[in-house]
Each structure stands twice: as C-alpha cells, then as structure tokens.
Amino acid sequence: MAKKIMLGNEAIARGAYEAGVKVSAAYPGTPSTEISENIIVYKEIYSEWSPNEKVAMEVAIGASLSGVRAMASMKHVGVNVASDPLYTVAYMGVNAGLVLVAADDPGLYSSQNEQDTRCVARAAQVPVLEPSDSYEAKEFMKFAFDLSEKYDTPVIVRTTTRLSHSQGVVELCDRVTPDDKVYERNFGKNVMMPGNAKLRHIEVEKRMKTLAEDGCTFEINKAEYNDTSIGFITSGIPYQYVKEACPNASVLKLGMVHPLPKKLIEEFASKVDKLYIFEELEPVIEEQVKSWGIKALGKEIFTLQGEYSANMIREKILGEEPAKAAAAGVAGRPPILCPGCPHRSTFSVLKKMKIHAAGDIGCYTLGAVAPLNVVDTTVCMGSSISTLHGMEKAKGKDFIKNWVAVIGDSTFLHTGVNSLMNMVYNKATGTVMILDNSTTGMTGHQDHAATGKTLMGEPTNAINITELCKAIGVEYVYEVDAFDTKEIERLVKQENERDAVSVIICKSPCVLLKGNVFKYKVKAVPEKCKKCGMCLVPGCPALTKNPDGTVKIDDTMCNGCGLCMQSCKFEALEKYEV
C-alpha cells in the first residue's frame, strides 16, 4: 500500500475522498483552508467556496438528505456562523453521512478568539472525533462517515492549527463509494417545526446515550497501559506531547471526545495511581470526569489559554526547568500590509483625514496597528457595518461624521450584505468603504462570488458589487481606484456630510494575485530629498531611511504602486519602467 507524507488538512481531504464523499462546501478560514484546496484534486467530489459557513453547512445538509455523503469545512469561528443549521440538523439526523470539519486555533495564530468547538458540540448534541496526527486525520474522516450513518447523526471532526499544518505519514487506500441512499420524504424527521422537533429531541438524547455506551468499545478510544503510577486522559495533538514527555506513562487516548465513554474512563482511572487530564483550551473532559467523582488534576496546573507542549508537562509534572524558546532574543516581526497593498493607500487617506474606522476581518485589520492606526474596532465577519450603524443610532449623525465602516469584498459577500441592508432599512446615514482587492486575501487568495471563478476553477457569473449595493437600495455608490488618494479623500469628505447611506468601493487587485505583472518600480532621488519623512508615513516596508536621513527603496520589495510618490512634494521619488 502506497504511503505519502501529508499535511493534516491534506490528509482530511484524502479521507473524504476514500470515504466516498461526493459534495464538499466550505468558506476559507485559517487553519481549515487547505482542506478544500486539496479536495479539488479529487474530481469525483463536487467542491465549492460558499459565501459563508452557514450556507456551506446547509449545502452539505441538502446533499446528505438527498442521499450522498457530504461535508462542510470551516474554522472555529465559522462554526458560530453555521450554528443555526448545525443545531437543527442534530435533531433531524442524516440520510447519507454528514461531517463538519471544524478547525480550532489554540494560541490565536490567525483568529479573534480561542473558542473550543467541543463546547459547541456539547450544546448542539453532536459527537466529536479528534485525530492526533495526519494518519488519524484520514482514518477518522472515514470512521466519521460510518458513525454518521450508523447513528443517524451529523459528526464533527475537530482539528487544531498544529494538526492542520503539521505533516505525517499517511497510507493511501482506494476510494470506496457506498451506493447513494434512497431519498424518501419524511415530514416528521426533516421538517423541524415545534411538534416534530419535540419528538426528535427525545431521539437525540437516546442517540447520545447510546454513543457514550458504545464509545467504550470504539477502536479510536484506547487505553495504553504502561507505568500505572501516572496516567493521562488526553486527545488530539496533546496526546503527542504526553508521549514525548512521559513515554512510559499510561494513557487513555480519546478519539471521540464527545460524548465521553464513561465506563472506559472509570476503568482507566481505577488502574492508575495519579490521574492527569491534559486538554487544550476548555476543561471539557475534565469537568465531566470530575463530576463522576473521579479524582484528577487538570486546569489546576495547566493553563486555559494557548497551545500546550511537551515542555509544559516537563515543567508542571516532572519539575524540570522550562526550556528556553528557540526564538529568544530574535527581534519581533509584527504582521504588516505588503508593499503595494491597495489597503495601505486607502488607510493613508483616512489617517491623514483623522478618520476612525469600524473594522472587519481580513488583511485590512492591519489598519489598526502602527503606523496607520486607523481601525478602532474589529469584532467578526461583517460586523463593521453593523457597528457603525449602532454608533449612529446611539449617538447621532454628528458622532459618526469622522467615522467610516471598512470591509473587504469577500467579507462583504460573507455577511456584510445583510448589515448594509439593515442600514438602508433603518434609515442610517453612514459611509461604508468596501476594499475590493478581487480575492479572499487573508486566507491565501481564494476566489469568491465576485471573482468570476469557482473553487473548481470553472468560469462563472461574477457578482457586481456596485450593482448589488444599488439593488439593496443604496443610492450613492462610487467606484474609485484604491491608489487615487485625492479622489478617495474627496469622496469621504463629501459622503460623511451626506444624510444618507453611501458606499465607496476602493478597487485594486491584491499585489500577490497570480498573473499580476508590475511594469514599474520607484526609486529615490537623494539629492532632491528634504528628509521630511512624509513618504514613510503609510508604512510601506520597501522604504527605509539612510543614515543621513534620506530615503532608500528596496527594489526587490517595491511593486511600483506609487503611493509614496503621492506623499512627496519634492519629486524625490521617481517611477521607472522594469
């Protein structure tokens, strides 16, 4: 049997293929994005970028109900967006297998919170599987679909950043495609009106009880008995840390972390002298185990925040000195907008005008940090527009005359459209700036509904954002080149005085998009430089100062956008053709 080294996300995609999945829907979000980017390799699977996670979940539900195995993929905060259909499909159950892959982000590598999807699953009453390496990521996907169909339930496969983006050896197996399930109309099971839902809730409780009992014999829940003076209950990536730090300890490795196999846990706990529960983020396992009267140590000694490590066990349990980080003493490298990024141009205008921005989720969130310091708020996808609306309704038009809402094109289509509708409907007067760089930039340049290309690379109709805004009822909609700083300044001044909702679309493609050809670069003319530093204000990393105070430009970084030239009144910067 062939073997291959795969990323965890790549292995999940392979597992979906081998399990016979026919439909996959997702919205890109680190650390889950590469799942769908690898699924498109398998032409037997229809795969799409949906406009948001709720839609992706509903697409997968529809495919499952029709009789084929289906999945949705998203990051942990995306599960919040998808929670409405998720909670309800737990009552409905499935026809063919239905799996949600949810990627959590302990350590906040690319997220606004450290949410634990296991807590959502407990509330929604959905079983959760948690692999600990790439091999298990693939195998657990196949097990998840079998589990889904056997117990008539959606199943969550939970990963974390460390699993998603680390590599391991995977055995490649053949694709096994079960026959499509026959679709049969079932009003009582699939129409969740109150009378039906009450009866289905009873079935959910029965199902979870059965799963907890049967889980004691699942191969993915296994006890590894060694030195019984110390025992660990763990799952996922933390299992790897336990094996590294305490290779001789006894370990109960849980592959299904909800519902918990109570009898198996009680048996393991009775055979070890001292029991530790080692789980990242929330004490999901710990609280249940302790509620059964089992003595264990967990969050008393381990943190609730961030990623765990083998060194944490060495320090907290073995009493060893904490190891020094390999990066100790290395200068920090905070994230920054790329050279030539059109967002920098827009933010430089807002900074000059001393405008506050209600921000959103995307590359442009970096407009909050120095030297731009424009974005004041960032909550979640689509929140910028609603936040600005709330400010106006709370404090009046005068309060928001020096405010705008800033949102990207992909995020606008994700959940910003609803917020803009709300502004129009409720007679708001704010200015919304859509920073349209023709991609979902932050997660690696995925297409979306306005780019004209699907996840599978097929040409399609592209949503016209300008016409969409007008159709919603916005009378004042403007398109402007993101590098036309004078026109942006004029429009912002004009629209912030207007007693109506207005939209300014700042358009320019992301500099990292494939196919972009830069015909020009900018060079410094030291003899003309007055050392005023105005060209440095936008914070382009291609520009630095010489020891004498004049400016120099790194031509390997410069993309020739010309923003720095617009800041210089002395012609000390010149564009040249390359």
Notes on the structure:
It is globular, with a radius of gyration of 27 Å. The protein has 19 helices and 23 strands. The chain has 578 residues and is α/β, with parallel strands linked by helices. Helix 1 runs parallel beside helix 6 and helix 10 (236-245) packs across helix 13 (310-316). The strands form six sheets. The protein has a seven-stranded mixed β-sheet with strand order 3-2-4-5-7-6-12. A six-stranded parallel β-sheet has the order 15-14-16-17-19-18, with helices on both faces. 49% of the residues are buried. The two termini are 51 Å apart. Strand 21 and strand 22 form a beta hairpin.
Which terms summarize this structure?
578 residues, alpha/beta, 7-stranded mixed β-sheet, 23 strands, 19% strand
**What distance lies between the first and last C-alpha atoms, to the nearest angstrom?**
51 Å
- What's the alpha carbon Rg, rounded to whole Å? 27 Å
Largest sheet: 7 strands, mixed
Low-confidence stretches: none
Q: What gross morphology would you assign?
A: globular
What is the percentage of strand-forming residues? Answer: 15-25%
Number of helices: 19
SSE class: alpha/beta
Q: What is the helix fraction of residues, given as a range?
A: 25-40%
Mean pLDDT: 94
Counting DSSP E segments of at least 2 residues, the number of strands comes to 23
Strand order of the largest sheet: 3-2-4-5-7-6-12
How are the SSEs ordered, and which strands pair?
Blueprint: E1 3-7, H1 8-18, E2 23-26, H2 33-39, E3 46-49, H3 53-66, E4 70-75, H4 76-92, E5 98-104, H5 117-124, E6 128-129, H6 134-151, E7 155-160, H7 161-164, E8 167-171, H8 187-190, H9 194-214, E9 222-224, E10 227-234, H10 236-245, E11 249-253, E12 256-258, H11 262-271, E13 275-278, H12 284-291, H13 310-316, H14 342-352, E14 356-358, E15 375-377, H15 383-395, E16 403-408, H16 409-425, E17 431-436, H17 465-472, E18 476-481, H18 485-496, E19 502-507, E20 520-524, E21 543-545, E22 551-553, H19 563-567, E23 573-577
Parallel strand pairs: 2-3, 2-4, 4-5, 5-7, 6-7, 10-11, 10-13, 14-15, 14-16, 16-17, 17-19, 18-19
Antiparallel strand pairs: 1-8, 6-12, 9-11, 20-23, 21-22
Helix pairs in contact: 1-2, 1-6, 3-4, 4-5, 10-13, 14-18, 15-16
